[in-house]
Amino acid sequence: MSLKIDTDHARFKNIVRGKIKQNLRKYIQKGEMIGKQGKDLVSIPVPSIDLPKFRFGHADQGGTGQGEGEVGDVLQPGQVEQGQGGPGSAGRDPGEHVLEVDVSMEELAEMLGEELQLPRIEPKGKENIEDVKYRYTGVNTSGPESLRHLKRTYKQALRRTIASGTYDPEDPQVILTRQDKRYRTWKEMIEPEANAVIIYMMDVSGSMGDEQKEIVRIESFWLDTWLRSQYKGIEARYIIHDAMAKEVDRDTFFHTRESGGTMISSAYKLAWKIIEEDYPASQWNIYPFHFSDGDNWSADDTSQCITLMRENVLPVVNMFCYGQVESPYGSGQFIKDLRDAFPDPEEDKVVTSEIKDKEAIYGSIRDFLGKGY
Fold first, then answer.
1. Could you tell me if 262 and 316 are in contact, meaning their C-beta atoms sit under 8 angstroms apart?
2. Residue 99: strand pairing partners
3. Looking at the predicted structure, is the pLDDT value of residue 291 above 90?
4. Closest alpha carbon to 285 in 95, 89, 121
5. pLDDT tens-digit series, residues 50-94
6. Domain 195-369: which topology?
7. What is the C-alpha separation between 25 and 365, in angstroms, rounded?
8. Do the beta carbons of residue 112 and residue 24 sit within 8 Å?
9. Where are the chain's structural domains?
10. Cα 121 versus chain centre, distance
11. What SS3 class is residue 158?
């Protein structure tokens, strides 16, 4: 019975997984599911799933096309059977039910990668970060009972019983002795691991409204989800800026709004300071993401940004991502300047993306993660 339950459960999980993948674009655009995120699980609302089954009717119900009326009768619109309900009235039929399914972050990342066809990331900087793992390498005659090898122990006892001539095929009893016990042995393995840091930067000047920040919040959730599936250890740092930049926590990052001007170089300078002090490139995979509406104080400040990127930031990061969120108050000039300064994304490691609205988040995630850097 348990095997059948396992089979049915696996079948149901595959159906749910298919429903989620089918509607993944819709889920990506919505921010509600982010609020239902636990430590390792996220709740996703999916339509109620009914498994197909036979239902027996009655012989007096008639078949298709049978019932009251004569050939040639005209069907009148708006005829509703009593009790079925109509516009503005109560009905008796059940509505569509929504089932909330808990999906692990690992499964969600896997579905995201499959749907967007994201390549696996090849981390750099492995040689200086180590992780200790234990691997079973053999069998010994001593060890803790929790590591006793049952199969090898029984085989040893059976071999000894047969060799002693006491084994009776008609009454095959095998009695263990202390000398028969065998235990797994292990070896400590030092394996290189790759860590990563995501540095989020966001323009919080007056031209970046709540709608623009909501887009950044949703997109950063999915960027986090994918990158955390690629690295064992990952950290996130948050920088907000208008005319000045400061590091904040995650909650402040998504709920701060200022009214000052914009100097993007202040954020890039602070990001470089964080990298230089805390994340040496030989040990860390570094992912800066900057979101803005494209307004900057002056062409001179934009020139400072480009110089800082070219001389300091780009040589040490995996890639530099700039997402321009469309705003009715932003000029949108900064993305043009970046594309002119770094025309070859493959060589320059600068990835840009224009995010007009929530529907554009889906394509923007592919823009940023589709290179596999």
1. no
2. 46
3. yes
4. 121
5. 445 555 555 555 555 555 666 666 655 555 444 454 555 555 555
6. Rossmann fold (3.40.50)
7. 11
8. yes
9. 2-51+96-116, 130-190, 195-369
10. 14
11. helix
